[in-house]
Structures are given as C-alpha cells and as structure tokens.
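Action item from last meeting closed. Structure (236 res):
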C-alpha cells in the first residue's frame, strides 16, 4: 500500500480517518465513544466504519513504524497476560527491555513450551532488538524448555542466561496494564484476525507513547501525532 493510495476510495478525509484510528489505539475508548465524539464535531461516522478503519490501518501503522524504532538493550523481561477472544481467555506474550521498551508481542491459545519458543523466535527476528544477554521470566516451566531448545539449535548465544526471578518482572507486569486497559471498552474480541490486527495497533501506539520512535520523545503528543501523519504521506 503506497502513501498515495492509502486512503483511496474512502468517503472521509485522510486526517479524520487517522485521527479516529490514532485515538482508538491510544486511549481507552469504544467505537461508539468515537462515533459520539465525531458527531460533536459535526461528522456523522458510524461506529462500524471506525471499526473497519482500525482493522485496515492498525496493521499498516505498525508496518510503517517498524523501521523507525530505536534499538533496545540486551536484557529482556518476558511474560504473558490474558485477553478474551470469542469469550475464551488466551495468552498475550510480551517482552520489554530494562528501560521498559517493548521488544515484541504475540498471542496464543496455549501457554506451553511450543508457544514460548515461537514467541522468543519472533522476538529474536525483529530488527530493533539486540541479541539477549539475559532473559528474565517467571516460574512458568515452559520457558526453560523453550530456552534450552533454542540454545541447542544455536539460535540463542551460548553466553545468554535465563533467570527465573519473579520480582524482576515487575516492569513488564506494569507495562501489561496499558494494553489491558485498552481492551476493556470493547468487552473482548470475536475472532483471531481482528484480535491480532487490533493488538498490532495497541502495541505500536504504546511504543510511540513510550518514546521508542527515533526523533519523537516520550510524552510529546503533538510530535507523536505529526509522526503518524507523516508516515502516511500527509503534511502535519
């Protein structure tokens, strides 16, 4: 999807679409909340239309942001939390470094060694992460098994250490709260695909909020909004 045709055939202006997508992914709002907020501004936008915008542009936002992420450090904190999909609880695997910067994320119906290994592999592969010197996890027995298999396969350096120290993961447990807060207004997800697309948007907006994007500082909301606008080829 090129910058020029990202909003082709849309019935609303690009800046309105990006505003709705950005607000939904950044704040704890429902689609109906945004429908009312737009109506106050004289715009009649159905909540289902905003839903379609989020489903379409959240993954695109993540893809366009990835090349601009700052490199994280080599001390990882890995943990999982719960989200509801199709009225069932599933696991959202997440990882941050010691500065609280998000490394990567994925969701899985299971919490076993296979799921942990899949997540670690995904995190090792993303461009903004450093090869880990230490990976801290909780007491979940799946992580040592996954870690040892990756070491045996030569995918994690031999010098890398796995630590199971619960209090050291307080940092990522605090970080989970931002994502969990965003999932509450929607009362859960209804398919794996919509879950993944929305989570991509939540997580990348969380990275932007934390100042993980080059040239955009933490807490500088105007610059963050302008950065997203530029990503889509618009003048801020």
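Sequence:
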């Amino acid at each position: 999807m090129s910058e020029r045709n990202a909003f082709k055939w849309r019935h609303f202006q690009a800046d309105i679409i990006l505003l709705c997508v950005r607000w939904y992914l950044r704040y704890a709002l429902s689609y109906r909340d945004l429908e009312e907020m737009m109506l106050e501004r004289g715009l009649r936008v159905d909540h289902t239309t905003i839903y379609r915008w989020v489903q379409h542009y959240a993954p695109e936002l993540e893809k366009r942001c990835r090349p601009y992420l700052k490199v994280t450090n080599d001390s990882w904190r890995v943990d999982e939390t719960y989200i509801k999909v199709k009225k069932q609880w599933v696991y959202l695997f997440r990882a941050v470094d010691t500065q609280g910067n998000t490394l990567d994320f994925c969701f899985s119906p299971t919490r076993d060694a296979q799921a942990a290994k899949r997540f670690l592999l995904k995190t090792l592969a993303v461009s903004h992460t450093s090869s880990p010197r230490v990976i801290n996890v909780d007491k979940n027995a799946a992580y040592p098994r996954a870690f040892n298999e990756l070491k045996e396969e030569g995918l994690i350096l031999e010098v890398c250490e796995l630590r199971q120290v619960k209090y050291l993961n307080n940092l990522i447990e605090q970080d989970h709260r931002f994502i969990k807060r965003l999932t509450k207004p929607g009362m859960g997800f209804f398919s794996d695909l919509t879950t993944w697309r929305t989570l991509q948007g939540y997580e990348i907006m969380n990275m932007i909020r934390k100042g993980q994007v080059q040239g955009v500082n933490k807490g500088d909301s105007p610059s963050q909004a302008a950065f997203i606008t530029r990503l889509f080829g618009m003048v801020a």
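Note appended to the action item: Helices lie at 14-26, 31-40, 47-65, 113-125, 142-152, 170-183, 192-209, 221-231.
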